[in-house]
Amino acid sequence: MNAFWSLTIYNERQLFVDNPLNRYAIGDRSGLKADADGSVTLYIQREDPGGEKSANWLPSPDGPFTLNMRLYWPKQSVLYGSWNTPPVKSAD
Questions:
Q1: What's the count of helices (H) and strands (E) in the chain, helices before strands?
Q2: Measured between alpha carbons, how far is 61 from 52 in angstroms, rounded to an integer?
Q3: Which of 10, 59, 83, 91 has its CA 20 to 30 A from that of 45?
Q4: CB distance 41 to 64 below 8 Å
Q5: CA distance 90 to 5
Q6: Which 8-state DSSP code applies to residue 77?
Q7: Nearest CA to 56 among 31, 87, 37?
Q8: Contacts of residue 66, Cβ cutoff 8 Å, sequence gap at least 6
Q9: Residue 78, SS3?
């Protein structure tokens, strides 16, 4: 990114998800904690993952939700499709 990114969560009615943190989006300006290899793991779940993981937590509702990633001033690799957003993976 040349600028910044954000990931916003919406409920099934496309409204912000009420949560104990009043956090509706997370991004590179959110004080995220990097993994040992320099990557960043985001925790999109109902319950607080606890400890340092909480810094990377975007609370989700019990029911259906959608995620919207915004990339501000993306690099050419994004614009031309050689880089794609990493997939969301279940921790189960």
A1: 1, 5
A2: 21
A3: 83
A4: no
A5: 22
A6: H
A7: 31
A8: 9, 10, 14
A9: helix
Fold of 4-79: Jelly Rolls (2.60.120)
> pTM above 0.70?
yes
Rounded Cα distance, 21 and 54, in Å: 10
Number of residues that make up the chain: 92
Q: What does 12-37 look like in DSSP terms, one character per residue? A: TTS-BPP-TT---EEETTS-PPPPTT
Interatomic CA distance for residues 74 and 4, integer angstroms: 8
DSSP string, 55-68: GGEEE--SS-EEEE
Q: Do β-strands 43-45 and 57-59 pair in parallel, antiparallel, or remain unpaired?
A: parallel
Work out the angle at residue 36's Cα, subtended by the Cα atoms of residues 38 and 55, and round it to the nearest 5 degrees.
80
Average pLDDT per run of 10 along the chain, which is 92 residues long? 92 94 95 95 95 96 94 93 90 71
Phi, psi of 59 (to 5 degrees): -60, 135
